[in-house]
Amino acid sequence: MNPTRQNPVTILLVDDDPDFLCQMELQLRNAGYAVTTAADCREAEAQLAQAPPDLAVLDLMMDHPDDGFALCYHIKKKNPATPVILVTAVTSETGLEFDAATEEEKSWIRADAMLNKPVRFEQLTREIERLLRK
Question: Max Cα separation, the chain?
């Protein structure tokens, strides 16, 4: 974490997998981040209404296959500067590969980064710090 910050960075972590949610929340808190969690879009919307996070980490497929896209769009519409990381198991589940690499993909995938599950904690924190430095 960036030691020059006065207040801890707040991360909104949204995933319908309770094991992933718990594991990442514990690791992020141990790394010095403030973390709010949600298990679905409805809970995430409630968290966003209370206080916008400094960064969001969203699962792509939750109750609906495109929940992560919809939530990312909502976050970016309200707070365009908030970095969003989408994490997904879509490649391992469907065999389809996609990311936000091309300009066309970036135009509809509003996320700042996409990571494939399983996500290593070091990989996630590298992306978090990279996006917070922008």
Answer: 43
Domain residue limits, the chain? 8-93
Encode the chain (134 residues) as per-residue pLDDT tens digits: 444 456 789 999 999 999 999 999 999 999 999 999 999 999 999 999 999 999 999 998 888 888 888 999 999 999 999 999 999 875 555 445 555 555 555 555 678 998 988 899 999 999 999 999 97
Task: Give domain 8-93's CATH number out of 3.40.50.12710, 3.40.50.2300, 3.30.1240.10, 3.40.50.2000.
Answer: 3.40.50.2300
> What span, in angstroms and rounded, lies between the C-alpha atoms of 36 and 31?
14
pTM of the model: 0.84
CA distance 52 to 127: 19
User: Which positions ≥6 away from 59 have C-beta within 8 Å?
Assistant: 14, 15, 16, 17, 20, 67, 68, 86, 87, 88
- State the burial class of residue 24 (Cβ atoms within 10 Å of its Cβ: 0-12, 13-18, 19+): buried
